[in-house]
Protein backbone atom coordinates (compact mmCIF):
# COMPACT_ATOMS: atom_id res chain seq x y z
CA UNK A 1 0.00 0.00 0.00
CA UNK A 2 1.23 3.47 -0.83
CA UNK A 3 2.12 5.66 2.15
CA UNK A 4 0.96 9.25 1.79
CA UNK A 5 3.05 12.32 2.45
CA UNK A 6 2.84 13.42 6.06
CA UNK A 7 0.30 16.13 6.80
CA UNK A 8 -0.85 17.86 9.96
CA UNK A 9 -3.57 15.67 11.44
CA UNK A 10 -5.70 16.01 14.54
CA UNK A 11 -4.84 12.44 15.50
CA UNK A 12 -7.53 12.10 18.15
CA UNK A 13 -10.90 12.60 16.50
CA UNK A 14 -13.62 10.96 18.55
CA UNK A 15 -17.03 12.06 19.83
CA UNK A 16 -15.61 14.06 22.77
CA UNK A 17 -13.45 16.16 20.44
CA UNK A 18 -16.06 17.41 18.00
CA UNK A 19 -18.84 19.97 18.23
CA UNK A 20 -22.14 19.15 16.56
CA UNK A 21 -24.94 21.66 15.98
CA UNK A 22 -28.29 20.50 14.65
CA UNK A 23 -26.78 17.17 13.60
CA UNK A 24 -23.98 18.81 11.57
CA UNK A 25 -20.27 18.80 12.38
CA UNK A 26 -19.62 22.38 13.47
CA UNK A 27 -16.13 22.22 14.91
CA UNK A 28 -13.17 20.21 16.13
CA UNK A 29 -11.52 20.79 19.51
CA UNK A 30 -8.64 19.42 21.61
CA UNK A 31 -5.60 19.54 19.38
CA UNK A 32 -3.33 18.08 22.10
CA UNK A 33 -2.55 15.06 19.92
CA UNK A 34 -1.81 17.12 16.77
CA UNK A 35 1.05 15.60 14.77
CA UNK A 36 2.49 15.25 11.30
CA UNK A 37 1.37 11.92 9.97
CA UNK A 38 -0.86 9.90 7.73
CA UNK A 39 -4.27 11.51 7.04
CA UNK A 40 -5.75 8.04 7.53
CA UNK A 41 -5.73 8.72 11.29
CA UNK A 42 -8.28 11.51 10.85
CA UNK A 43 -10.23 9.69 8.14
CA UNK A 44 -10.81 6.78 10.54
CA UNK A 45 -13.11 9.07 12.53
CA UNK A 46 -15.73 8.88 9.79
CA UNK A 47 -16.74 5.39 10.94
CA UNK A 48 -16.64 6.36 14.64
CA UNK A 49 -18.39 9.76 14.55
CA UNK A 50 -20.88 9.75 11.72
CA UNK A 51 -24.16 7.94 11.31
CA UNK A 52 -24.27 4.97 8.95
CA UNK A 53 -23.78 6.13 5.38
CA UNK A 54 -22.14 9.44 6.37
CA UNK A 55 -18.53 8.46 5.66
CA UNK A 56 -18.57 9.06 1.87
CA UNK A 57 -19.64 12.70 2.31
CA UNK A 58 -16.85 13.20 4.86
CA UNK A 59 -14.29 11.64 2.51
CA UNK A 60 -15.43 13.85 -0.37
CA UNK A 61 -14.83 16.95 1.77
CA UNK A 62 -11.44 15.94 3.18
CA UNK A 63 -8.57 17.05 0.94
CA UNK A 64 -6.36 13.98 1.42
CA UNK A 65 -9.09 11.32 1.18
CA UNK A 66 -7.88 9.32 -1.80
CA UNK A 67 -8.79 5.64 -2.10
CA UNK A 68 -5.47 4.54 -0.60
CA UNK A 69 -5.89 6.75 2.47
CA UNK A 70 -9.46 5.50 2.97
CA UNK A 71 -8.23 1.89 2.87
CA UNK A 72 -5.49 2.68 5.40
CA UNK A 73 -8.07 4.38 7.65
CA UNK A 74 -9.89 1.11 8.21
CA UNK A 75 -7.07 -0.06 10.51
CA UNK A 76 -7.22 2.79 13.04
CA UNK A 77 -11.02 2.74 12.87
CA UNK A 78 -11.09 -0.89 13.91
TrEMBL record:
Instruction: Give all residue intervals belonging to the Aminoglycoside phosphotransferase domain.
Output: 4-74
Keywords, comma-separated and alphabetical: Kinase, Transferase
Recorded superkingdom? Bacteria
Task: State a single Gene Ontology molecular function.
Answer: kinase activity
Protein name stated in the entry: Aminoglycoside phosphotransferase (APT) family kinase protein
Q: Which organism is it from?
A: Streptomyces paradoxus
Tell me the lineage of the source organism. Answer: Bacteria, Bacillati, Actinomycetota, Actinomycetes, Kitasatosporales
Amino acid sequence: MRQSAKRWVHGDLHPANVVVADGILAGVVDFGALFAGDPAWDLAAAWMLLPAGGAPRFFNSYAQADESAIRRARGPAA
